[in-house]
Amino acid sequence: MKRKLLFFGLIATFPFLFAGVLDQQYVILGWNDLGMHCANKNFSKMAILPPYNNLKVQIIQKGDASTMPMVLTTGYSVTYEVPGNTYSDGKTNFWTYVNQLFGVSPAPNIGLTGVGLTGNMDMLNNHFHVEGIPLTPYPDSDLVNEHPYQLALMKAFDAANNLIGQTRNVIPVSAEISCVSSGCHGSEQGILNAHESVTGFNANGPNLCASCHADNALGTTGTPGTPIFSKAIHGKHGGYTNNCYKCHPGPNTQCYRDAMKTAGFTCQDCHGSVAQVASSITAGRQPWLQEPSCSSATCHGSAYAPEPNLLFRQSKGHGGLFCSACHGSPHAIVPTTQPNDNLQNITYQGWAGKLALCSVCHGVTPNMPGPHGAMPTAVNEIEGSIATDNSFVSVYPNPANDGQVNLQFQLKDPGNYKVLVFDINGRQKAILAHQDFSAGQYSMKLNTLAFAKGTYIARLSGKAGTFTRKFLIE
Ligand code: HEC
Ligand code: HEC
Ligand code: HEC
Ligand code: HEC
Ligand code: HEC
After folding, report:
1. Of 71, 310, 327, which is best to mutate to test ligand 4, by the most ligand atoms within 8 angstroms of its C-beta?
2. Is the pLDDT of residue 353 over 90?
3. Of 29, 243, 259, 275, whose CB has the highest number of CB atoms within 10 Å?
């Protein structure tokens, strides 16, 4: 009897849950512009970077079979907060030294641009943004250990101030700037002593490195004759180390944590050595503004290019959405090894990784090319068919040699199923479907022109279990 009650309870709650998740009219996507923001904790001797975080949000009104989705701005508003992290003054001594360092006196817990740890985001073109959130890596509940991957909560409201949706994504911050803890320098005072001959230098601190050394990160132009900050720091240290985590956060934080890391790339593969980060500036590279690009010929190629003369984090692609809305921020390209980075896309499409499920925004699977011109796969129910089992019925031709594979499967148990294709190394190559199916037989055509020759595995998984079928592309 108990068992039966539980069973009914489940049936009663499921449609309710789905109504809450799937029938929503709006998709709220939020992210941070960088995979990591660094900030000093102690400003009494030196300031490399102040507490300064940025968030962006896009609101999408979901489409359906007859309407395209729409990116919304006018008439809507967005707030931000970092639950569990409500103050910064005292977690860092930034406000004690901010006037000496930056010549301005924001109130405690207010950052250099006048914003605090919670507030309203500004509308800009087709998105909302906030710059300069003075966040520290210390939530209210732990003032000792760094928590670099806290979640920001972004809420969207309509003109009548009704909450229309919300999202959470990582607001990354680390104070692991480890000149001393790396074992390289004895003390911060020791670093200052190396500058004692420089006029205008504050021998006992505090010093803003970027006040004399031009720095595009802080928008300073520096004093004449002083090397650009990135060139000075990488140039001076390139002879001692090629380990980026001696300074960039770091052995504990592991800020580079994304799909590119999983694929085996090192910092140096994309940026060159420490010495080359500096020598490229001597050769004319603008630090912070000219960085590696996804679309270079040896990488992903021109179909995956950021906008001309813009960085990845500044670029928009499909439907006017930022690259980061679907892919995450630089060095945090989803899927990443930090569960919080993956949360947003898991919430919307059910799995980690780039936002690839058309129906999240379109409500349906459009029968037209989507992001980067890729064609979605149409699922056709075979009329009048009866399912006797849950399984693949056929995958043909196998081997495939004319750029197309037909997959046919049957489902006796209706429910939510995914059809994915993996290569022999277990890397996901395509998402053919992820939707609710009623009982019956289905067919779909996978376009294989972009696939390398080799063995692949089609996988159908859901309520009734997981079923696979191998096929060969010649
Ligand atoms: C008051 C201006 C001033 C400030 C503030 C300042 N620097 Fe410098 N820095 C200079 C000048 C000028 C030089 C070049 C001196 C020389 O060549 O001997 C220099 C040289 C350097 C170099 C060596 C570059 C090389 O290739 O040899 C490094 C590294 C450096 N600074 C780091 C820093 C850091 C880190 C800070 C912040 C703690 C900082 N500087 C703050 C003026 C400044
Ligand atoms: C797969 C290539 C790749 C790897 C590996 C990589 N980077 Fe980057 N890095 C980039 C790209 C691309 C950008 C520019 C981001 C943009 O266009 O918005 C960038 C930008 C940066 C910036 C400027 C700030 C920012 O985020 O835009 C820093 C600092 C940086 N990288 C440091 C590192 C360090 C340190 C490592 C290793 C721990 C590393 N990168 C590994 C590609 C890479
Ligand atoms: C000695 C410490 C140190 C080491 C080692 C170091 N960095 Fe940096 N890096 C810094 C600092 C400090 C900044 C911030 C400079 C600024 O504010 O402009 C920076 C900024 C950068 C930037 C942004 C500015 C630019 O030039 O575009 C990139 C990219 C970068 N580092 C890449 C790397 C990579 C890749 C490595 C390892 C191969 C590395 N760094 C090793 C200290 C270091
Ligand atoms: C609406 C979501 C969306 C937006 C916006 C978007 N992409 Fe994509 N991106 C995808 C999907 C889905 C794929 C996989 C399909 C494919 O490989 O063609 C993909 C694939 C990629 C890949 C290849 C990665 C791989 O796994 O092989 C790169 C690189 C890429 N995108 C870069 C970008 C850049 C740069 C921008 C901004 C100019 C951007 N994307 C905007 C959804 C998006
Ligand atoms: C993150 C949300 C999102 C996802 C995911 C998404 N789209 Fe879109 N798509 C949009 C928006 C927004 C537009 C812009 C509609 C307009 O104003 O024209 C758009 C436009 C389109 C258009 C119209 C032509 C164009 O490129 O502007 C097509 C076709 C399309 N999408 C197909 C797809 C397909 C196929 C997929 C899945 C592979 C997909 N989209 C995934 C948001 C999305």
Report:
1. 327
2. no
3. 29
